[in-house]
Amino acid sequence: MAATRTYHHGDLRRAILSATLEVIASDGVGAISLRDLARRAEVSHAAPAHHFKDRAGLLTAIATEGFELLAAALATVPAGTPHRLREMGVRYVEFALSHPAHFTVMFQPQLLHGDDPELTAAKEHASRALRSGVEDLPAARRGADARRAALAAWSLAHGFATLRLNGSLPQPDDDPAETFRALVGDHRVTDLP
Q1: Contacts of 16-25 spanning 24+ positions with Cβ under 8 A
Q2: Please, which residues have CB within 8 angstroms of residue 80's CB and are 6 or more apart in sequence?
Q3: Residues 157, 89: contact at Cβ < 8 Å?
Q4: What's the whole-number average pLDDT of the chain?
Q5: What is the C-alpha separation between 37 and 71, in angstroms, rounded?
Q6: d(CA 126, CA 117)
Q7: CA quadruple 180, 185, 188, 192: dihedral positive or negative?
Q8: If both were cysteines, with which of 53, 95, 102, 171 could 73 make a disulfide (CB 3.0 to 4.6 Å apart)?
Q9: What whole-number distance in Å separates Cα of residue 118 and Cα of residue 42?
Q10: Helix (H/G/I), strand (E/B), else coil: 83
């Protein structure tokens, strides 16, 4: 019933996005159907299509929102913070663990409208935020190719977050932020590439 009230207040788009995130979290991306989401929101089956056109449009909106949330999380580590890139990696991991449905969709380009201008802008916003952490490294630690350094940092944070979300890490009861900090510190990954 609450979704119906939300719809009457003009927030059907948000209601559909929220329902989509719930379905992804509980049943996976494959369970997404505009017709089912309309039923959940207690609106006509055409209503979600009005906002998102199709399933890929809906998932593109989820990914766009995810990249903006990620950029905001990365931006919470201000320039000049000691070990800034490492702390941005921690924020990346924390984002993935607190927004697993977004995270799942963001990195599946085959599900999205890749040419969507809002998605492109959101991806660039998040990418710029991550690159700013790499650019803060002294040139000797960053290496000759800052893009490779950014790729190495992203790969480490993304890989750790993915392993954690998939339950593949041996000690799931530890603090993921502290584990990531120790991982980076122990292996001197901040000295890569």
Answers
A1: 16/41, 16/47, 16/48, 16/51, 16/52, 16/58, 17/58, 17/61, 17/62, 17/65, 20/58, 20/59, 20/62, 20/101, 21/62, 21/101, 21/102, 22/101, 24/62, 24/101, 24/104, 24/105, 25/100, 25/101
A2: none
A3: yes
A4: 86
A5: 28
A6: 14
A7: positive
A8: 95
A9: 28
A10: coil
**Element spanning 9, H or E:** none
User: Both tokens of residue 80?
Assistant: 């000049």
- Residue 189 DSSP label: G
Cβ-contact 55, 34 below 8 angstroms: yes
With H, G, I as helix, E, B as strand and everything else as coil, classify residue 174.
coil
pLDDT at residue number 10: 63
Q: What DSSP character marks residue 113?
A: -
Q: Scanning the structure block, which residue is given the tokens 């559909």?
A: 16
* Tokens linked to 2: 């609450």
Q: pLDDT (tens digit, 9 = 90+) per residue, 71-93?
A: 999 999 998 888 899 999 999 99
Letter for the amino acid at 71?
A
Lowest mean pLDDT among 1-10, 32-41, 128-137, 158-167: 1-10
